[in-house]
Design goal:
This protein is an alpha/beta fold. The chain has helices at residues 7-14, 28-42, 54-61, 65-77, 127-137, 153-165, 181-192, 207-215, 234-244, 265-278, 334-344, 353-364, 366-391, 415-424, 453-472; strands at 81-84, 88-91, 114-115, 175-178, 198-203, 219-224, 248-251, 281-285, 311-316, 328-331, 396-397, 405-409, 427-428, 430-431, 444-448. It has a seven-stranded mixed beta sheet with strand order 4-10-9-8-7-5-6, with helices on both faces. Helix 7 crosses helix 11 (334-344) and helix 9 (234-244) packs parallel to helix 10. The two termini are 34 Å apart. The model is unreliable at 96-109 and 474-485 (pLDDT under 50).
Length: 485
């Protein structure tokens, strides 16, 4: 079923559309059409959504229907709207602008490259002692085959205890250990989503999650996030669930990647209730839940509002500890965990025992390790914010109170061009379209603050230099994309 945006909802998204630059030189219909195109380019208004009828939107905006009719006509002419008599009008992008995101990236071991494409920290000093202690624990497992599809009991107990300490009572039977959070998501999708199933995701969202959904040939509906807090539009999010009734919804409510938003408790409760009412399963990614900054108090876990086993939570060690330790987990009902384990046997059997033992020792020291990580991230975030304010004051950034990334609104739709130019001066960036679908989000850029402060300041200096070069140089300096037939 096609998602629909109501007149009042679209009016709220448009905001002060009539005050856009150039308003006095353009008629009202052109300004309105331009504002809708801007929402599409930013990912705030999803593609494939049905717009309100002309009369409904005119009443919501308190303008004449003639103005809305002319704006819709212009949007059709520019390829941003498709209409069918008696059925309505749907948002789209011109065919030449459709760029699919693969979610793939390849980090290179280049000492001169400042890599801002990967939002992950280097290993903590506690990792080496934990590895030594794990090696000493290993002999007691060597007498068995070493296959533990749901994970070794020590680690499942440690993860379950962490959930219980957060106010979500959990038993080890509700935990399955995986080879990282991405692996956890893949297993959940294998079990819960048939090929071609309908899925609701945020826009922007995590590129590798979008790639996993693409691998399942999922039909994706997006919910656009605002730059300002709280990010989610409750009316549109809940309305999207009710209208499309997706089989699955993938959400990142805790310091969302890439925006850094934190979903309020009241909306978490309403999302869970609505998902149950429409028959949607929720996959909640808690990759960043251990990293609140500035003393931010976390809302209750989304699964704490679940009474019908509709919420499956995934998380892991990559963000608070180290990405090279491929340990993640799924928290679900005990029967769901058993079904996941049965599905897993056909994929990889089990996670490495030694890695799991390392994770057990790290989790035992988690309070001290995570506290140091938070202090480190706070200092690096503030250094990045200061550098951006000094060198790129035209960019707009909402300060995240957790996680590891900034989501910057640029001063123009230049994200991909800027990433190409930055690569030439030794800075690797992940441009906005990587976090969306069909080439939107060109006015945004994700900037992680996981590198040392000096590297972040240097990176901003290089980015600022090439940003100003974009205005002075012609388009011919950029390489044309390779054509593969």
């Amino acid at each position: 079923m096609t998602s629909q945006v109501r007149g009042a909802q679209l009016a709220r998204l448009l905001g002060q559309w009539h005050a856009l630059p150039g308003r006095r030189r353009s008629p009202d219909y052109a300004a309105l059409a331009g504002a809708v195109r801007g929402l599409l380019a930013d990912g705030r208004l999803p593609l494939g959504v049905r717009l309100p009828a002309e009369r409904e939107l005119a009443e919501a905006l308190k303008i004449s229907r003639t103005t809305v009719t002319a704006a819709y006509r212009e949007l059709r002419e520019t390829g941003h709207l498709a209409s069918r008599r008696g059925a309505g009008s749907w948002t789209m992008l011109p065919g030449t602008h459709r760029v699919a995101s693969t979610g793939l990236w390849t980090p290179l071991d280049d000492r001169d490259m400042i890599d801002l494409g990967v939002a992950a920290l280097a290993a903590p000093p506690e990792l080496l002692p934990a590895a030594r202690a794990a090696a000493e624990d290993l002999p007691r497992y060597l007498g068995g085959a070493g296959y533990h599809p749901t994970g070794i009991i020590e680690l499942r107990e440690a993860v379950a205890d962490a959930y219980t300490d957060r106010g979500l009572p959990t038993s080890p039977d509700q935990i399955m250990v995986t080879n990282g959070t991405q692996h956890a998501l893949d297993l959940v999708l294998r079990l819960a989503l048939a090929p071609g199933g309908n899925v609701l995701v945020e826009a922007p969202s995590y590129p590798n999650a979008l790639a996993a959904l693409a691998a399942r040939r999922a039909r994706i509906t997006t919910h656009g996030l605002a730059l300002e807090e709280p990010g989610w539009d409750a009316d549109l999010l809940l309305g999207g669930l009710r209208q499309t009734r997706p089989k699955l919804a993938y959400l990142i409510p805790d310091f969302q990647n890439p925006t850094g938003h934190l979903m309020p408790a009241a909306l978490r409760e309403r999302v869970v209730a609505t998902a149950h009412a429409v028959g949607t399963d929720l996959v909640v990614d808690e990759s960043f839940v251990d990293l609140p900054l500035d003393g931010t108090v976390l809302p209750p876990p989304t699964a704490s509002f679940d009474r019908h086993s509709r919420v499956v939570t995934i998380g892991g060690m990559s963000k608070p500890f180290w990405g090279g330790l491929r340990i993640g987990w799924v928290r679900a009902s005990a029967p769901q965990v058993q079904r996941l384990a049965a599905a897993r046997v056909g994929v990889d059997m089990a996670s490495p025992v030694l890695d799991q033992l390392v994770a057990v020792h790290l989790l035992a020291d988690a309070p001290a390790i995570v506290a140091a990580r938070r202090a480190q991230l706070t200092a690096q975030r503030d250094a990045l914010l200061t550098a951006l304010a000094q060198r790129l004051p035209e960019w707009r950034v909402t300060v995240p109170h957790g996680g590891v990334t900034l989501w910057a609104e640029l001063d123009g739709p230049i994200s991909s061009a800027l990433a190409r130019a930055a690569e030439e001066v030794g800075v690797r960036l992940a441009p906005g379209p990587r976090f969306g679908l069909d080439g939107t989000l060109e006015r945004f850029l994700r900037l992680p603050f996981t590198l040392p402060a000096a590297d972040l300041v240097e990176a901003v200096g290089r980015i600022a230099a090439v940003r100003y070069d974009l205005d002075r140089g012609g388009r011919s300096q950029w390489r044309e994309p390779a054509v593969i037939a």
